[in-house]
Amino acid sequence: MIARLTNEYRFFRSMPRNMQVLLITNMLYALVLPVVEIFMAAYIMRYFDDTSFVAIFQLAMYSGIIITSLTNGFLLKRFNVAHLYSFGILLSGISMMGMMFVKGLALPGLIVSGTMIGAASGFFWTNRYLMALNTTSDENRNYFFGLESFFFTISNIGVPVIIGALLASIDGIRLFGMELSIYEGYRIVMVIVFAITILACFSLARGKFENPLQKDFLFFRFDRLWNKQILLSALKGLVQGFLVTAPAMLIMKYVGKEGSLGLIQGISGMLTAIILYLLGRFAKPKHRILIFSTGITIFLIGTIVNGIELSMTGVMVFVLCKVFFQPLHDLAYYPIMLKVIDVVAKKENRNSYAYILNHEFGLYAGRVIGLGLFIFLAYYVSETFALRYALIIVAALQMLSIPLARNIMKHSYKEEQ
After folding, report:
1. CA 110, chain centre distance (Å)
2. What angle do CA 185, 188, 189 make, to 5 degrees?
3. Widest CA span in the chain
4. pLDDT digits (tens), the chain, 417 positions
5. How many Å apart are CA 161 and CA 286, to the nearest integer?
6. With contact defined as beta carbons under 8 Å apart, do 19 and 142 qualify?
7. Half-sphere exposure of 301 (CA within 13 A, CB side)
8. Angstrom distance (rounded) from CA 146 to CA 243
9. How much is the pTM?
10. Which of 321, 290, 335 is nearest to 147 (CA)?
11. What element of type H or E holds 175?
12. Cα 118 to the chain's mean position, in Å?
């Protein structure tokens, strides 16, 4: 066992240095992501007791991503990509702290907070894509995203368990003669999160990352292959908003409180993490469609079970399927996307960031349509109907991604030859 682990460590050390630095930084930031993805929605649900406020927060957050993705393109002309990435990491911690330390949070404050957290995510994700594109090749991208997904999955197991236990234990205890509420627990979590973001920035400073040579990045007409990739990104965005909000909504409504979030997320997480690492380590580029299809099929099964049995049992099955689906989908999706950028950026002689920015618009379109569908069903039919059937609709639409991704892969390798 020790020999096997040593061999895996040596394999990691054989990767390019900048790729190692980026993976370690992302490992640290992986400890922060569960707070954004799970407990922010849970906090809003607890504070406002209305799922529509969670959807509004998400729309504000996604709008913030678009604003800073565009701004980031201009800033790349003056600032190093690693510095902008670090700024995004720090801004995410500051924004979440600001939201939870504000007294008497109302709808305008929620929208401002969501936009700021989205702004941080815009700096984080777009610069992450750019650095991943420049520090990896098609041959080692399965390993990069497999190991990164391994980190994220382990964090999704451990972090919710620890935070759930902290929130459950701190509620109602007395400290220095004052009774603490669960809101103080959330604020303690935010301080720890901010400390982790600082460590991630120090980690990133050890690498040397370069900006694109071509400065122009804003274009409105693209190669046909890239237009197909944008359609795939819109389908991904369609379900992405639900993956951030739906688990917390369902669990808070049908299962229990925050402690249950950690327990349910951790049930199947360890198995998923091991599978992800092995897939990233040994799967070849030709296996990406199989991984992609498997993840989407699992997600569809989970949504159908949740729709049939909207109860504790149905919700638990859905969340377990979601734990498998999301990393499997990302493990295949991102290498496909980066491969297309490699091909079309060379073909059109453009700044690679032009495609990363345009990709965010594709994701945003899908997210707005998906969340718009949920809000429409919640207001004009019922919240229960939305939680039961909106997920099935977006999961069924995701099945269209499989033949589309297969076509994109086929033509990206064909055009490269």
Report:
1. 20
2. 90
3. 72
4. 777 778 888 888 888 898 999 998 888 888 877 776 665 666 676 677 666 777 788 788 888 888 888 899 889 888 888 888 888 888 877 777 766 666 666 777 778 878 888 888 888 888 988 889 888 888 889 999 988 888 888 887 777 777 777 777 776 676 665 666 666 777 777 788 888 888 888 888 888 888 877 677 788 888 899 999 999 999 999 888 666 666 666 766 666 554 555 555 565 667 778 888 888 888 888 899 999 999 999 999 988 988 888 777 777 788 788 878 888 898 999 999 999 999 998 888 888 898 999 999 999 999 888 878 877 887 788 777 877 888 888 889 999 999 999 999 988 887 766
5. 36
6. no
7. 12
8. 20
9. 0.82
10. 335
11. strand 174-175
12. 12
Q: Give every CB contact of residue 321 below 8 A, 6+ residues apart in sequence.
A: 298, 299, 301, 302, 303, 305
Nearest residue to 124 via CA among 167, 75, 76, 90 = 90
Tokens of 48: 């406002």
| DSSP-based three-state secondary structure for 130 | helix
Picking from 274, 285, 297, 351, the residue whose alpha carbon sits closest to that of residue 73 is: 351
CATH of domain 11-204+222-416: 1.20.1250.20
